[in-house]
Design goal:
The chain has 13 helices and no strands. By secondary structure, it is mostly helical.
């Protein structure tokens, strides 16, 4: 592998990792509050079609991103009402939410197939962007690549040091205790679910507005499920999300760069790699049950009723 081959591969990895970072960070906050939302895939697709459609009509990427976040938050709100207010099973409701998002996005995107939008502009920093090797790897990406990394830092600091973050973690560990000392458990769980929905929508929009940039039915191709696995891979710690996202991003990009890198591997097998890697990582992590139990929110997936 030469430098000329390595630079495009690593740069593409950063792009492929960004939607995973966004979606997994949102789900991590949701799960830290004790809510398990398996509907990430559906919310990503909803955000992808909404963001692309609004950008295509208005010509404004900013409005497209806002629309993607709003649409995914609306879907997340349905999940929140069902699981937090009506006390439905979180696992079953999340799976239904994914099926709903898949169908809704396919219906809404019928007239959008084959059209394209201008991708988000890349940020060029004088002198730094022109540096050999380092410039293309660090200083030639669109704003969302950097925003995703800053978001992880902010979420990590917030959960560890801020009062709202500590309260959120307390709710995820013991909602009964948090409720007993006066914290609004249901309201804060609503906020966490909506935050997760907003980031899932942003992740979907990144795929349809930057990586492609066009609308293709089912374009997330399982990345929502990979984002869910990333939260476990990271043992519910934001910094682990970045590591896992770039790992899975590299595996995903490998299927497109494999032949150029001289890998004599069938393309069908390369297409399987991201999902095989997901299974392998989860199997590996499950061997260390102590670490998982140490960091996993104790009330994850458990319904809470304030009047009980």
């Amino acid at each position: 592998m030469t430098i000329d081959d390595l630079i495009p591969f690593l740069a593409s990895t950063a792009g492929a990792a960004t939607p995973l970072i966004l979606a997994a960070t949102g789900e991590l906050v949701t799960e830290r509050a004790g809510v398990l939302n398996l509907g990430v895939e559906g919310m990503m697709l909803t955000g992808a079609v909404a963001g692309f459609g609004v950008t295509l009509v208005t010509g404004s990427a900013t409005l497209g991103l806002l629309a993607a976040m709003g649409a995914a938050m609306a879907v997340a709100l349905i999940f929140a009402v069902l699981t937090l207010s009506l006390q439905t099973n979180q696992v079953a409701t999340g799976l239904a939410l994914t099926l709903f998002g898949v169908g809704l996005s396919a219906f809404a995107g019928k007239g959008l197939a084959g059209q394209t939008v201008e991708p988000l502009p890349r940020i060029f920093i004088p002198f730094l962007s022109d540096l050999p090797f380092v410039g293309p790897l660090l200083f030639r990406f669109d704003g969302l690549v950097y925003a995703a990394l800053l978001l992880v830092v902010a979420v990590g600091w917030g959960l560890a040091h801020s009062r709202p973050g500590l309260i959120l973690r307390a709710i995820g560990e013991s909602p009964d205790s948090a409720h007993a000392i006066g914290y609004p458990v249901i309201a804060l769980r609503y906020a966490a679910v909506l935050f997760g929905g907003a980031l899932a929508g942003l992740a979907g929009a990144y795929m349809s507005m930057v990586l492609t940039p066009m609308w293709v039915e089912g374009m997330t191709a399982g990345r929502g499920w990979i984002a869910l696995a990333l939260v476990v891979f990271a043992t519910w710690k934001p910094r682990g999300v970045v590591l896992g996202a770039y790992l899975f991003g590299g595996v995903t990009v490998l299927q497109f760069h494999g032949q150029g890198l001289g890998l004599a591997i069938p393309s069908e097998f390369l297409s399987m790699l991201p999902y095989l890697a997901t299974i392998a990582v989860l199997v590996f992590i499950s061997r260390d049950a102590h670490t998982i139990l140490l960091n996993k929110p104790m009330s994850l997936g458990v319904s809470f009723r304030a009047d009980h």
